[in-house]
Write a structure and sequence with these properties.
It is built from 4 helices and 2 strands, in the order αββααα. It is mainly α. It is elongated and about 50 Å long. The termini are far apart.
């Protein structure tokens, strides 16, 4: 896999996984059926998906480049906030748009 392909796979997967907790309110990790999820359960699920994306990024970097570059705390802070930005459409749908669409 080339580096360009690995980057695009990682970005698309991150966008999809960042939005899953907000779109599926009756499923926990897409497997366990639940009645409804609170905002705290959504945040925990979102963070677990963030860790999964981190593991995928580690694996793709190792596969594409042959080594993994050591990172400081700034890198991880930026990736958390970037993952939060990726989840913005799902969050808006869950807490703002869905309520508006149900009223119509």
């Amino acid at each position: 896999m080339t580096l360009d392909t690995a980057v695009w796979v990682l970005i698309v997967t991150a966008i999809v996984l960042a939005n899953i907790p907000w779109f599926f309110q009756n499923r926990l990790f897409l497997l366990l059926p639940v009645q409804t999820k609170s905002v705290w359960v959504n945040l925990v699920e979102w963070f677990v998906y963030f860790l999964l994306i981190g593991a995928l990024a580690f694996m793709l970097e190792k596969n594409a480049m042959g080594q993994v570059q050591a990172q400081d705390w700034e890198f991880y802070a930026v990736t958390v906030f970037m993952f939060a930005i990726f989840s913005f459409p799902g969050f808006i749908y869950r807490y703002n748009l869905r309520r508006y669409l149900q009223q119509s």
